[in-house]
Amino acid sequence: MRKIALLSLLTLAIFSSCKKSGDTKPEVSVNADIAGNFQLTSYARNDSKEYTATEFTCLSTNIFAIKTDNTTAAYTTTGLSCPVYPPPTGLAGFSIGGGKDTIRSTYVRTGNNLVVSYKRSTGETVKSYAYLTTVGGKLNATIKDTITGFSGLPIYITAIYVKQ
Predict the structure, then answer these.
(1) DSSP character at residue 10
(2) Dihedrals phi, psi of 148, to nearest 5 degrees
(3) According to the lineage, what is the superkingdom (predicted)?
(4) In sequence order, what E strands does the chain have?
(5) Strand partners, 109
(6) How many CA atoms lie within 13 A of 122 on its CB side?
(7) Residue 46 half-sphere exposure toward CB, CA atoms < 13 A
(8) Which residues are within 8 A (CB) of 4 and not within 5 positions of it... i.e. 6 or more apart?
(9) Hey, is 23 helix, strand or coil?
(10) pLDDT by residue (tens digit) across 97-130?
């Protein structure tokens, strides 16, 4: 009886220590070259619906450029913002992109994490956080940011950019 109980505990310990294959994110080597232009492919606010460049092609005109001198630039290739129309109303809910203005910032990289610091139009210095992964052989930057909406309430943003 003891052998069966011991064997059961050993089997349970082995299987409970195994990870499921979907539990891990593909990691970027700390030495990976991250410099280049990243194109916006997905955008979500306040953990709501995810808007993609497939639905709203103008999203793909938003570029996040990471440079080798630890600076970044965010801009739109068309110089226009991208209005997003949440279904089913068809009314413009919000716009993505800063028009012709380029947001310049600096970053500090620690492993797969970037802390991006930039100044808002008010002069306030704020930080966004990016996490680097590879998906389908392409380098992705998932950026999390908080902005203040017109109502004064915080808006939490998650944007996914893919290196071109």
Answers:
(1) H
(2) -100, 125
(3) Bacteria
(4) 36-45, 50-52, 62-66, 71-76, 82-84, 94-96, 103-110, 113-119, 125-135, 138-148, 154-163
(5) 114
(6) 5
(7) 7
(8) none
(9) helix
(10) 655 557 788 999 998 999 999 887 788 888 889 9
β-strand partners of 17: none
Q: Which amino acid is present at 31?
A: N
Centre a 10 Å sphere on the Cβ of residue 69 and count the other Cβ atoms it contains.
7
> Do residues 157 and 45 touch, judged by C-beta distance below 8 A?
yes
Tell me the C-alpha distance between 83 and 105, whole Å: 24
pLDDT at 80 (0 to 100): 74
CATH of 22-163, picked from 1.10.10.60, 2.60.40.290, 2.40.50.140, 2.40.128.280, is 2.40.128.280
Cβ-based neighbours of 129, under 8 Å, separated by 6 or more: 113, 114, 115, 116, 143, 144, 145
What would the two tokens of residue 56 be? 């709203």
